[in-house]
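COMPLEX REQUEST
Ligand: LYUYDEPV
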Amino acid sequence: MKIASIQLQITDTQLASDRIKKTDQLLDKYAGYDFFLLPEIWMTGYNTFDHYLEEAEPLDGPFVAHFAQKARELNAYLFAGSFVEKFNDHFYNTSILFNRQGQLIASYRKIHLFTYGSEEGELLTRGTDPVTVDTEFGKVGLATCYDLRFPEQFRKELDRGAKMFLITSAWPLTRLAHWELFNAARAVENQCFLASCNCVGINRGVVLGGHSRIIDPWGNVVAAGDENESVVTAEIDLAAVDQIREEFPQLKHRVPIE
Ligand SMILES: NC(=O)CCC(=O)C(=O)O
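STATUS: Structure written out below.
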């Protein structure tokens, strides 16, 4: 599987339409790849909380339609990151995954909303269900940024058969050490691949940390970004998951703890 994590730069002066245009251009540049990732609430800007409600869209709105078409054009899986979803009178931080035909095969509403210096928890409703979904490469589990701190969500996804975690993020540079640690820990403890997509740039005074990663089930960082806009790429084979689980069967040694 050829995978590309599009580590977008977010600045306060960009228009949403320009962000989409730039993203389309970056995606087109990597046509031929099998799997793409984009960051968290990148169209609005994660820290642009005063725009959340006005820019929110339903799941059958233009944002989702646009990237369904893009996945179809690219003939690739596209984890288009997250956007502010409006459903009835509620708003969610919802990430979306399309298959090669442009079908929306999974949507995930962020469970652990971030409240530390963030308005996310006041504006949005939290999701309740972890999400896993089959792809032609194996089952993947979805998660969003702050979720990384909650290993039980990833265990649940593992127990549902996940072989790779896809993480969409807007994680700040000030806690880069935590980001690197949790990316690796979630991969190693579950013997899964993990691919993450973080943004870079300065959004409402918050310096975003980048360092998107692709990590194998042994914890090796196969590819990683820095603090600049870039596309982090790798070629991986999810068969390595079964191989490593067989060679080092830690998951068989779990003891139920009440
Ligand atoms: N967007 C987020 O969820 C930020 C999470 C974060 O900054 C942290 O966990 O630290």
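REMARKS: The chain has a mean pLDDT of 98. Helices lie at 16-29, 52-55, 62-74, 120-123, 151-159, 176-190, 239-247.
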